[in-house]
Amino acid sequence: MTSGTRSALTREAVLDAAAGLVKRHGPDALTMRGLAAELGTAVTSIYWHVGGREALLDALVERTVAELGEIRPSGVTPEERVVGVAHALRRQLRGHPHLVALVHERGLTERMFLPAQRVLVGEAHAAGLRGIRAAEFVRAVQFQVVGHVLVERNRERAPAQHPGEQELWSAESAGGDPALARALARPVDSDRLFETAVRALVRALLAPADRSPSRRSGPGG
Question: Which pTM does this prediction carry?
């Protein structure tokens, strides 16, 4: 391998190709020989740019963590901004499932979410939340996003169900509510469901403490 050939290949090109292999086939498919074949180069050239497989995996994790941290809130109201952050985090997690799994396998999950948590901390403070309420706000939004993505992926991977949802619901099983039965028998609109759930959660979390249900209820209602 000549120095001219090495210089034609860049570290970023190696990482791009490695990320593509992981995205298509999972972390186990990432071998140095397979990566070299993908790039049309020699294994020695891969080592020249990124080192061995462990160093390559570390570099992929670092880049994934950095990419997941690039979330910029937008919107006028605190609710709009936080809902936007939640949508952005969901898109990133769904767009990089194998890379996210790689981060998790290497014990860096908490670090992966730290940038998004910091964005949510800023939004919590801007909305006037402090201390325990701010911490609950950050974690509740994060758990809502991660939980929704996990359920989505489990449903996508699950084998065909027999009976399916369309066969399970009738007006009788839905408590005499035929419209509810029809709605539950239809395929899940995951995007709409996420929007509904995260917006309701954020609205409740941003509500002033003296207007929360626990504060409103008391003797006489």
Answer: 0.75
